[in-house]
Amino acid sequence: MQIKDLTIEQLEKAASMLKAIAHPMRIAILNHLEDGKKLTVTEIHELLQIEQSTTSHHLGILKDKGVLCSKREGKNTYYFLKHDNLSSIINCIGNCTMGC
């Protein structure tokens, strides 16, 4: 599929998702969720060494914009990428930030 084949609604949703991703901590969160990984808020906040409330805030935004999904298992809620293709965006961002 090419961009020219997308509807206005699809383009608007894509732009909304990209806006949600466009934050250093959110990119870092997505990086930790690559390859089908599922992590809890606690695991993510420990990996990133940021406050749990801050982590929850960023996860909420990513979930609200359709970037992440969550699944409750017992007392834990696990977060994961809604679409495996989002890993391509993370890889692209990493590659594009390398110097010339």
Commentary on this structure:
The protein is α+β, with helices and mostly antiparallel strands. It has a single domain (3-93), classed as Winged helix-like DNA-binding domain superfamily/Winged helix DNA-binding domain (Arc Repressor Mutant, subunit A, Orthogonal Bundle), CATH 1.10.10. Helix content is 55%, strand content 14%. A three-stranded antiparallel sheet has the order 1-3-2.
Q: Strand share of the residues? A: 5-15%
How would you describe the shape?
Answer: globular
What's the CATH architecture?
A: Orthogonal Bundle
Number of domains: 1
Topology, number of strands: 3
Number of helices: 5
The Cα radius of gyration reads 14 Å
Kindly report the name of the CATH homologous superfamily. Winged helix-like DNA-binding domain superfamily/Winged helix DNA-binding domain
Low-confidence stretches: none
With strands numbered from the N-terminus, the spatial order across the biggest sheet is 1-3-2
Distance between the termini: 30 Å
- Mean pLDDT, rounded to whole units? 90
Under CATH at level 1, the class stands as Mainly Alpha
Oligomeric description of these chains: single chain
H/E element string? HHEHHEEH
